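Hey team,

Sharing the Spermidine/putrescine transport system substrate-binding protein run so nobody has to redo it. Sequence (380 residues) first:
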Amino acid sequence: MAADPERVAESSNCESEAASSETAQASVSRRRMLSATAVGSATALAGCTKLLSGSSDALRVCVWSGNYADRFEDAVVPKYEEEFDADIQLQRGWDEILADIRSAPDDNPPYDVTVTEGNFYYYGRQEELFHEIREENVPNLEEVIDYYTEFRTTEYGMPVDGAPCTIVHREDADVQPDSWSDFSSEAVQNSAGVGVDTGFWWYPLYAAAVGMDERELGDEMHEPDLHEAVLETFRDWPVSGWASSGEDVWQQFDNGVIDAAQWYYEQVAYDIDDYDGLTHTMPEETTGYLNHWCVVDGTDKRDQAEEFINFLMDAETQTAWSEEMPTLFCNENTEYAEDLAEDLPSNSEEAANIAFPDWEVLAEHDDELSDEFTAIQTDS
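Structure output:
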């Protein structure tokens, strides 16, 4: 995943030049004239993306950094390279992904294929950073769970994977939350406190909205008149841990700073047993992210890029992938490893219990909500 591409991310050591939301929402060419300052920033950013493997002729694929990249490299790359007799040059990215694409020459983008969550996917489309996906080259789209093709356009990216937010908590504490409304309960208020993500500020706010239950599954976030009520609910959470990575969350538990936390299923389910005294509970209704995989405008490997995305969408690929990574998958025929199917959706009805952010609505209020979230963090 990645932090807000329109703002300087607190979760990364690599700072990116942030365009204004007004600019991002306009349909503009992705190749903009860069000032000397911007060029300098782009040069600095070039060092933020780490090459993992591959040759100069390889398909350049950008994935989220951290254990996502580690598991992707183990589970997906060898399978594709063997099946298609092709090389993958895997690159780790975070908040700099869109900035790197913006600053690259027209005919030499930094990646051929990139992962995007909802925020990046929205702003990247507005700035024409991605090729349209030719559906005849991604036949596995026919096997994608309907819900994932209906709530967000697939014109420029294919839904492949993602993760709901889960609640991490201590096994032996008085706090045993199983819904986001519990973060407002007396038991949680009297605990050491809770931890939340800071880079992806919209997920804690959506979780707060889901817990309010005044509108259908987080729709409070899609009604500007209710934004202050959502922010007030979030202010009332006893947030004592502000995390920019999973490592931060585990350390905050270890230091006794928090007794519960909002975090992401794919970073928790296979790792939780490594931490004594901790468990996690998946709320019946939650929020979460969905990755759309995109072909970067300007690549000379458009056909291969679409072939690779279609490979990611394949049920067999996703079944094997789930053995290494406990992520949500979009193919209706995917067979989840272990007990993942108990928590992760396998059909549209189950997927509809996850409030995925609607950036078509949210973008207009992006700066305002982000500033309010930052103010709450600063004042805590």
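The longest strand covers residues 158-170.

Ping me if you want the raw files.
A.
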